[in-house]
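Can't paste images in this forum, so I'm doing it all in text. The chain is below; anyone willing to post the predicted structure tokens underneath?
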Amino acid sequence: MNTQEVKDTLDTYVMHTYGRYDLVIDHGHGSKVYDKEGNEYIDCVAGIAVNSIGHTHEKVAKVLAEQAKKLIHVSNLYYTEEQAKYAEKIVKKSPHDKVFFANSGAEANEGAIKLARKYTGKGEIITTNGSFHGRTLATLTATGQDKVKKGFAPLPSGFKYIDYNNIKQAEEAITEDTAAILVEPIQGESGVRVPDDDYLPSLRKLCDEKNILLIFDEVQTGFGRTGKFFASELTNTVPDITTCAKAVAGGLPMGLVLANKEIADAFNPGDHASTFGGTALVCSVASAVLDIYDEENLVQKSQDNGKYFMEKLESLKENHDCINEVRGRGLMVGIDINYDCGDLVAKAQEKGVLINVTNGNVIRFVPPLLITREELDKVVEVIDEILP
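Text version of the structure:
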């Protein structure tokens, strides 16, 4: 198919749930992707923080091909070696004791909500305004943004909302029926909002005092995105449950619910399940992804190059009064602009850089963690050119 045929076919046969950019991506490698005509783009979207190890990593391709010849899927009614190996590796990498395998961030958050309610025997989950936790009925209800809920009433009960980065509101919101507080260590979809340094530790202390659970949604912030493997490490705050997805399996669908043993053991056979959760194929790739993180020092690269990138973006303030703030951690970075700047996406694309705009006025950068400083310099150059 040529470029137009691809667009026309998708528009004809696929439900219109996405506002797609005017680009047909044909292939990619490392931090770059290429369209059908061969034009090159530095990818600062990375599948929305999914392709942290870059596109078409040779090790992933090799493991994927080898495992596909051996075993792709069997039911979780049986044991598989691939799942056993990955479960041990990811749990030992985390501050938790056990893991449940899902397929996405929304599924992981659904699992965390169920686990919190099962363990505590209570029903209320407190979340924050501006948050994003998924598109299922429960997780979009948990999401603190009204725009994602329109048209889907009636929504499930049992959710309460407080302002992000406001410990006083958190304390006032807790009732006898509160099971947990669910929070993103850094809010992604509402514009890379970084809380005060004492916010997450204060939430931990509050949850301990009130005997409720603290759940961190690390679907976007996890796996090195913020310069630490888990964003919880930024403030040495250990939650009771952590959810992950996006970067877990190098582009294959996988979600994780990680929890401490006492809490995890609240789930009994039949309480929760996933047909495709933790398949031999995806677990083998996810295991290879962890190896790549270690072999290529990706978490440290995220920290070092993220700092470099933010300093470069900060220098643009000298020439562009429209920049309110540059914020983020690691290679999860946002530029807060003083106007609705959605048109910048197309302008950057024309110059060979893929970005996205979230919350209407924040340019978000979540590139592969292996992106080079030369590539980051090019991104900064393009942003400089397109900003008024």
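The chain is about 35% helix and 20% strand. The domain at 3-53+297-386 is CATH 3.90.1150.10 (Aspartate Aminotransferase, domain 1).
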